[in-house]
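Chain A, query sequence.
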Amino acid sequence: MLKLTVIVILFISSVKSDGDDHDNGHSLFDKYDSDHNGVLGKSEFSTLFMGFDAWPEDHRVSEHEFVNGWTSRNSQLSEPGSVTLFFFRTDLDGDRVITQNDINTLFSMFDENGNTSVSRQEFCDAFSAMYYAIDKC
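Chain A, predicted structure.
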């Protein structure tokens, strides 16, 4: 049943209307670039995902925490069904929680040039490829 749900979510997410009013990747990047230096360090990148860890803070983000957190903080990027897809794509080891291990792996995937920071363009390229949510960068 879970596989069917994921397939349906993937399908819904891939069928986007042309008039979507999604925010762009640069705005999302800027929201989490807390020191405004034009790159996301590991800590800033981690905050984008691990910041949804709600009470009790256990350094693990459940699907429920992720969906609620993402929807409340990034509503402009919250198509119906797409937030659950974001969760499953971020939970890289498939254990149904997002941990720092998932984020460390994800950071390495986003950091295309391996310089231990994620530039605005790297973020936009990788986020668009992984999550299909950013229409323009």
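Residues 2-131 form a domain with the Recoverin; domain 1 fold (CATH 1.10.238.10). The longest strand covers residues 39-40.
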